[in-house]
Amino acid sequence: MDDCLFCKIIKGEIPSTKVYEDDFVYAFLDIAPQAPFHAVIVPKAHIASAAEIDENNSVYVSKIYEAVAKIAKKENLEKGFRVVTNCGEDGGQTVGHLHFHLLARRYLQWPPG
Ligand code: 5GP
Ligand code: ZN
């Protein structure tokens, strides 16, 4: 999608610090980290939000979780981590391209507030 921030990051039109990449997934460091380790993991297809996942695109979700496990091993996140997807206005989503936050290297409160 031409005017989508994360599509531009995937294409390299906007610079990012890559954490992981494969045919389905791109992951990069968040520009405003909420934890000492904060990556954003996105599908390489424009899916607007978690509300738009269906039988035609859900393969991206499993590929993202495969990427989570690989990143966690590579980054030595054995103490744990959190994966969060914000969806829509009340969910706090600010970029309209499905993405998963991978947060780690501090104790993460629950419930998140
Ligand atoms: P959301 O608020 O939609 O759940 O998450 C969007 C995330 O994208 C935020 O954590 C925000 O800091 C991050 N973000 C927004 N613009 C950029 C950018 O240009 N580069 C990077 N690396 N992260 C960004
Ligand atoms: Zn997009």
Give a structural overview.
The chain is an alpha+beta fold and 113 residues long. The chain has one domain (5-104): 2-Layer Sandwich (HIT family, subunit A), CATH 3.30.428.10. 24% of the residues lie in helices and 22% in strands. It is built from 3 helices and 5 strands; from the N terminus they run αβββαβαβ. A 5-stranded antiparallel beta sheet has the order 1-2-3-5-4, with helices on one face. A hairpin with a 3-residue loop joins β1 (18-21) and β2 (25-29). The relative contact order is 0.22. The model has no long low-confidence stretch (mean pLDDT 97). The site of guanosine-5'-monophosphate (5GP) has 14 residues, from β2. Zinc ion binds at residues 1, 4, 6-7, 46, 97.
Protein topology:
Layout: H1 5-11, E1 18-21, E2 25-29, E3 37-43, H2 59-74, E4 81-84, H3 88-91, E5 100-104
Antiparallel strand pairs: 1-2, 2-3, 3-5, 4-5
This protein binds guanosine-5'-monophosphate and zinc ion.
β-strand number: 5
Ends apart, CA distance between termini: 32 Å
Relative strand content: 15-25%
Mean pLDDT: 97
Largest sheet: 5 strands, antiparallel
Derived structural class = alpha+beta
In the CATH hierarchy, what is the superfamily?
A: HIT-like
Brief overview:
Helices cover about 25% and strands about 20% of the residues. It is of the alpha+beta class.
Record keyword descriptors for this entry.
113 residues, alpha+beta, HIT family, subunit A, five-stranded antiparallel sheet, 3 helices, 5 strands, 24% helix, 22% strand, binds guanosine-5'-monophosphate, binds zinc ion
